[in-house]
Write a structure and sequence with these properties.
single chain, about 750 residues, alpha/beta, eight-stranded mixed beta sheet, three-stranded mixed beta sheet, 28 helices
Length: about 750
Amino acid sequence: MENSVPLHTCHVHYFNLLFNRSHAFLHSTAIAFLIYYRTSFLFLETKTRTPIIPWLLLFASELLLTFSWLLNLSYRWRPVSRKVFPERLPGDDELPAIDVFICTADPDKEPTLGVMNTVLSSMALDYPPGKLHVYLSDDGGSPLTLKGMREAWSFARWWLPFCRKYGVKTRCPQAYFMGTDEDDDHGSSEFAEERKNIKEKYEQMKEAIMQAKESSKLSGPSCHCSRDHPPAIEVIEDNPPRNESPTKMPLLVYVSRGKRPSHPHHFKAGALNVLLRVSAIVSNSPYILLLDCDMYCNDPSSAKQAMCFHFEPKLSSSLALVQFPQKFYNINNNDIYDSQLRSFFSVGGCGLDGLRGPILCGTNLYIKREALCGKLIPEGINLEEVKNTFGPSNEFIKSLVEEHKPNLMINDVNSSGTLKQEANVLASCAYEDQTQWGEKVGFRYRSVAEDYFTGFMLHCKGWRSVYLSPSRPQFLGTGVTNLNDLLVQGTRWGSGLVEVGISRFCPLIYGPRQGLPLLQSMAYAELAFSPLLYCLSLWCFATIPQLCLLNGIPLYPEVSSPYFSVFLLTFLSGLFKHLHEVLMDGKTIQTWRNEQRTWMIKSVTAHLYGSLDAIMKKVGLREASFMPTSKFMDGEQLTTYKKGLIDFQASTMLISPFVTLAILNVVSLAGGIIRMMVVGDWRKMLGQVLLSCYILVINYAVIEGMLIRRDKGRIPSHVTLLSAIFAVMFLLVGSLILIMF
């Protein structure tokens, strides 16, 4: 391979590189003047300066945002993009085997039919069937999911040959039959007839799953408990009718790990580690594709595109994973909840790819098994020593030995043979006791953001990653389309990230000690600290200037002062840089506004609760918890979303903080303007007026939800009333404190 043509190219975006660094220089210069102005205030005479407490709080918030901005520079330091040439890969005989890991936990939140569509799309990848093995982890141990697997296998015997015969690109059945794209332009009567036949069989599979779901509801509560059940492993197979020619099929395995209330199960990371162990004694493929249960394969060539990096001689030895972006098919054009995470993938993915590589995102990635389990063990080593790390299973230890090849004894897995018993042991809840699983091998356990923490540890060990974003999305899933799910998801992510930031694995300290480049450490630190930094600073910016505006206390320079221009320049510089990135991605000003609003709302709610949750777990006041995001789409909520309106049907605890801040800004702005008209000190107070105006303009949707909208998705009246009471109480108490001090 060393003398062959390259399998991929890497292009450095020099224009963006120069633009980003020039902007960073100008912005940092303005910030330096801002800090000088704030610091010099401390040396003024006490009689001539404003109250020190609000001034210091505002200065501290500005320093927190400055620190976050400095960390964020790592994403923009050296952006690159890559292109692959899968047609240059060797033949199918030389391609390595791939295991596909798909995780589901709750059929009530993750519809079984959608999960089976993901399974079918992964089975239909453009890859040798004998080298493709699909594992589904059912963390809830649901009989409905197992039934769905059997139905999906039966349908796959028809679906896979159809896709191969006609070169179908959209290999998720649900997406294929709903769409009208290039897959339907074959034009022959034979194709039309086969398509009709396949659709009928898909409807039969769909109907069988729906009937099983209804039967489970009618049968009432069962003795099965999703948190207390033994392991169950089954290779899905059947005997095709005699008149059918055998179809080459990937291996399909159902895995439900054992769970007991007395044993920690470590959420998704624990489920993935069970799949690592079980797959090691069944197929033991050197590469693994990780998928969320709602993230189907939209392009069958993704495996070969990833192999273009793993086959590159100069890169493959240190390459841990190839990360594809997350794209969602159910998000509207304006993306009112920023569900696509545009900035994280478009800016962060390309930016980190120019350093040590992107962050592991938990789905849409091809990862090397060696990166998770360590290098293969040479022949002759004392295996007893290895068991202290990997556990007592002899079969699993053998899978780590060089030159060991799995037997793929499919029938033995479903029988009472040795392999069946060994697989159940590996999937039991007590197997990891007194081992290094989750600590030094496998997916890491110290955070509910297991993907982020695992990727960080891999980079600290010297592994690299690459980011690939082809024009056709390789994977498509369902993004959040209501405010409640957005904030619940954000709280969980925030908790997991802050957990790492305040632990001994703090990226700014642990990373450099392990040899991780400073810029890469800064990128991990930005994610780890951003929930805490944003919630503290934005709560201050949304309350302190407004309180002082109402009481006639200036916190910004007069309009005539040159430092007013410095503050204005710093503020506009950040806004226009964000707007420039949005427009360069082909998005609109409305998208920019939606991203600004989502950032504010998440900062004062999800980031606040997530940070508090992480701190409480740190001091032992709370245990770790995990709530999967619902993949069901309510009809009324979907209608509201399609209209571009925010659905405020969420718990009071989630929406009252930003509603309170919106009311507080309205009251302070109105009272402040009236006071300025009477007193005539608008030159001193203009900065605070502009800040409140900016907050209210960006969050007009919140004002609209309180006062104008009358649909079901409006802000409930009791939330508005409660928030108004909180806002008035804060202004009254705050004003009394300012008068006293």
